[in-house]
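Discussion board: Methods & Data

I've been asked by a reviewer to show the raw model output for two of the constructs in my manuscript, not just the figures. I'm not sure how much to include, so I'm pasting the format here to get opinions. Each protein appears as its amino acid sequence followed by a line of discrete structure tokens. Is this the kind of thing reviewers expect to see in a supplement, or should I convert it first? Here is construct A:
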Amino acid sequence: MPEGPVAQVGLVLIAHVAALAEGVRTLAAQMAPEVDIRAVGGTDDGGVGTSFDAMLAAVTSVLADVAPDEGAGEGARGGAGVAVLYDLGSAQLTAELVLETLDPGQSDRVLLVDAPLVEGAVAAATTAAGGAGLAEVAAAARAAYVPTPAAGEAETPETPEAAEAEKRVEAEVRARTTLRNPAGLHARPAAALAHLVREYDARVTVGRPGDPGVAAAGVLGVVAQGLRVGTEIEVAASGSDSRAAVDAVLALADAGFGELDEETPAVASPVPPEQPAAAEPAATPRPEPGTLRGVGASAGLVVAPVRHLRRTEPRLPSTGGPHDPAAERRRLVAAVDQVNAELGNRAAGGGSGADIAGAHQAMLADPALLAGAEARLDQVTPAEVAWWGSVLEARDLLAGGAALVAERAVDVEDLGRAVLGALGVDVRPSVRPEDVARAVVVAEEVFPSDVAALGEAGVAGLAVARGGRTSHAAILARGLELPMVVRLGPAVLDVPDGTPVVLDARTGQVRVDPPEAELTAARRAARDLATGRERARAAAAGPVVRPDGTPVTVSANVGGRAEARAALAAGADAVGLLRTELLYVDRPRLPGEDEQAAELGAVLAELGDRRAVVRTLDVGGDKLLPALDLDPWRHGPLGVRGVRYAFGHPDLLRTQLRAVLRAAYGRGEVWLMAPMVTVAAEARRFRLLVEEVAGELAAAGTAFARPAKVGVMVEVPAAALVADEICAEVDFVSVGSNDLTQYVMAADRTNDAVGDLYQPGHEAVWRLLATLVDAARSAGRHVAVCGELAGEPDAAVRLVRMGVDELSMAPSGIPDVKAALRSRLG
């Protein structure tokens, strides 16, 4: 998009709390980065209040940066200047003192604007970004967030002239188009839309077809609709410029609001003002009586009675004075610090919950949570009420997003309850540990903290109405080997307490109150399964050999030292996938070369002389590292992820390669591979870069070890179909079965709505694997498979018979896979 006009108005935002002022500034600046916006919050010593000196410094600084409009005349109030917005009346009094201190030539260029702070700041910033003068910017702030009249209510014209203009309005024009920009109508595109429609004499609305729509000139209303990429939207306009306005909006949408890297056709078609209602979707077939179908999130088979986990809203103290906001803030900060310390101890302790505890620390550190609570603190609101209001706001915002984002809403509420607990609120669920031993716990959703507590209490299994297999609760359940089935639907909540059930997390089914003969058979199968698992663990340390004497390598997928130790305990022959991104997932910045080398070296040291395959940074898709500020659409499953991102950021990749080669010095055999390779040219480029980095280290006299083999992950169907070309460039290939399945089946593995199509064992996946393995064997290349498919015993046997050399899986799956291979390969 062409560059817009130069902003000639700056903003100073004043609030009694520093975090609130800075948060509003961040929001406004995101939509109008070209506008000079300063935040002034709190007292000079960091308390709640205002600071005359800070306000004066901010106003004079912005005045110095904003050049006067030479043609404005009369004090330049119609041109360049500073608009000052504030949260409370006491801030206004201080700001008035600041104006009295300024010289007349300066004070004439400053306006105090009585407007809602958040909405007013956004409206003022977007208006200033369009080149508007001071008076127009102030007017936009004052008019911000005016409610749209309810259905059936007429908008009263402000003047006779306006009433006359209403009579001359042309017929309403409507058109539809599909959003193409990666993140849909988020803040920046909504600001561009608002700028555009203000240029026309028309009232323009935008929304989903069939909905009333919101004013396109109102940024917050547009953003609140949550219109995402691929969503069909309807644009409507009335007024003398209605047709021109609609055409301009369609053109802006066709250009992706300036956020597209390349052109793709858009869909736009004028439609009549009234459309028939869409047909109701067909009802989902109900399962047969007695069987609930869901998705297995943590494998296992159990027979046990049901116990419900009923959660109630926390009992918060009542509002009403007097409360000292400063004292309440100190209580809240202390509680947050206490929970943060507890999470830090868990993260440092290793085990299956370490990574999740670290992720929760990162969430707790989000300044928006604390700022939202502080903004609610006043003389009648205690810390508990203010904090919980901020948590619920963040939870509901996440819950409305895509499946993977929505799963994190549970984590936010879990964190929120932990802080409430530190503030003295009883947040325990209604079921106590002594009630759930050897029972199947039923719940609408479970928190990560629930899983840990229930596991310690000896719960037999978990049957969850919602949730997903990628949720933190599911990850913890797998680490605890606690059988869990998710997405069972609301019917599971109707199963009475005490009802016997058979929970089969291998198939994702729950049988409710089956006949006694079926219960007896299921108990026998569960005992046999447990006995077999114990035998498999005892024998797991030994190797697996084919009848012809060639070995089969059974490896582990690990992400840190704790998992490396778990892999050895489970009998892993090697590490088939060392996920380097998990070392950095919760950090605000990526570590440097020395820190990466040290951490990777520590993981390799745990493995002794066992071989490890190190995968370079695999970001994007469902791995959005906070240090890289990745967009979930641009860097989504079909976007710039894996080696694509690494090639676009060569310094990041070279630093990591140097760290890996240095960490490999003096360790066991290290192989190196790149993720998300699609074509042979990418494999060749990666290998050449590894050679370049090795040459640099050698020339510098730095101790390092070249990788014994260089390979790539095959996760894209295109790569599997041209495996012969890729194998000509590398020493080995490793199939990422989880990603390969989602691309073959066109079913995002993090999206519950298409969970029934995400089938790692589908014949289409097997046929593609056969093509790949044949090509790799013909080229004499080592071929590995990692992910869910490799860890399923039946699939593992089929893969080895197909010609796969190595299987890599979660450590807990190794004993069962080795046992299956030994018993069935002969």
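Construct B, same format:
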Amino acid sequence: MFWKPGSDSPVLRQKDTSVDDSNSSNFVYNVHKNCSLSAQRQKLPIFNYRNNFLYAVETNSVTVVVGETGSGKSTQIPQYLAEANWASNNLKIAVTEPRRNAAITLASRVADEMSSHLGSDVGYQIRFENAISESTKIVYCTDGSLLREIMVDPLLSKYAVVVVDEVHERNINTDILIALLRKIIKQRTDLKIVLTSATTDAEKLKEFFCSRVQGDSDSKITCAILSVEGRNYPVEINFAVSPVPDYLKASIDLSISIHENRPQGDILVFLTSQEEVLSAVKDCRELVRKLVKPKQNVKVLPFYGSLTTEEQIKVFDTTQTGQKTRRIIYCTNIAESSVTIPRIIYVIDCGFSRFKTFNANSGLEIVIKSQISRASAVQRAGRAGRVGHGEAYRLYTENSFEKMIMETPPDITRSSLSDVVLKLKAIGISNIVKFNFLTPPPSKHLCKTLEVLHALNAIDDKADLTTVGFILVEFPIDPMLTKSLLDSEKYGCTEEILIIIAMLQVKNVFTRSQRGGKTLNKMKFKFAAQEGDMLTYLNVFKFFEENRKSRSVCKEHLLNYDNLCQADNILNRLKSLYKRYGKRLLSSNDDTNIQKCLLSGLFVNAAYYHHTGVYKTFRDNFDLSIHPSSVLVSERPKYVIFNEVLGSSQNYMKDITVIESEWLLEVASHYYVNKFVNS
């Protein structure tokens, strides 16, 4: 049983003790909302520390700013630096974010506050997209984008300050970037580094930058820590009385209950994946339509990583709905930090998220659903305290919260290191083992990665980058897919491989039908290829092009128009990058050539159907099943390759293509020569 607002509350409550709780149950809208943007900036907690911050940057190589959600770190620090002329003499200020959505929305907000057009004084730079000019002073970008700049400009000579935001998330690119910045500032004493976070261990960062390691001369790096007060308003925390058996259903029911019983304010619901978000949005909209005389209008919106810019506007632009319309927003952990969705007063936290984990034995990176950390729970609750007294509802017990790990393990300890190794090698780091990481990756992960990269011909016997390896680094996609693209000229199917790769970047090309899953499956099989999912995506995109990219035709055939447009944009950028290497864009109608070409990059992800009813990988006999969304779910092809593994009760293969066993020795004999292929 879960307590719902409007009934007597048996739940334990954990109050925010940093502020006065006497009026915490009252709803108060942002009292500064009618002020000018300039006046609102001065009301943020970090404004009181402006001079302290600028002095710390002036007198230290590295400044660590620790401030809770709502303090204004992400938007104000870059402006303070620009106002202090750190972006003069044609130098810029780089601000890195872990997610592309955060980079776009923060750049837009700061541009508004600086009374500038996006792309002028303030811009953004992300994978496959940018809005910057020669006059840009503040560049919001993803960690990965800045890493690519380091490959071209190892000392980041066009930047005066690099701000690494949301350090606590510790994704792979963030860890690599921090480690490289430590090396860069030893050569560029004029470069300033600012690290910001709400929950990170500031002392650990200080020790990392200031301590000496083997091979270092006397370290002259100085580091200051600045602590900023937290959110503007208290947040009341409510726990479940007992474990919730179905958090998806509970989150929908609770959001409707809050809408009917609680005062004005928008609701933000954290779920684990795009699929869950879309399912919840559909079900919630149906329940909203059944409400009898609701107290106010309500709009239900989704928010996840691959959402298009147009759809994002609906989440951030509150003028579209007005103050009298309550919004219920279902999101993934993309809204956990950096991105601030306006008007949020109520947060519902399911307590789970999706993480990648690397199996060093099989060499597979598996996406699993796992319990979040306490730090993530605090971040999620903090979303409710930005514009008024907030309320956070956790769909787990207080005892479960106490048993959570303190912080989410860094991505570098549980992910494939292929991209890490390629980037570091390209930058000139020859000995990866001795490289000074903030958190060293497991040695067995590194060994497996080197084996795979050698099989892809990305590194030679001495573990140095080959010509192929240098090209793999240039493409902002998975190295295995890039290898298939490089081999596509040999198989005469470049156009088709480019389309498939672009479609794999957006996922979910089909939309849910209000008439149920059977209708969707019926429509999906109109495009289904007997060769599997990847060639089905090819059929979908060709249909999209043949019908002049019509939105109405997409709607009729249950195709996701926005995602197909995004795939089209990615396709054009990949074509442009591919042509730089003087490669020809060839096309083939022979599906066998396309299958072999895909195998040339994804040969590591090959599996065969076992007599026990499961699939097993050739090299390591790792058990797998076909994902229910695959067009092959009712088939049992003998041999397949796949692009991704999703873990739950079983490990599911996604994006599957049928192959023949003899192709493994033809295309990847160097990897399978010692294995009995015809298992």
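Answer (T.O., handling editor elsewhere):
This is acceptable in a supplement if you add a one-line summary per construct. For B, something like: The CA atoms of residues 458 and 469 lie 4 Å apart.
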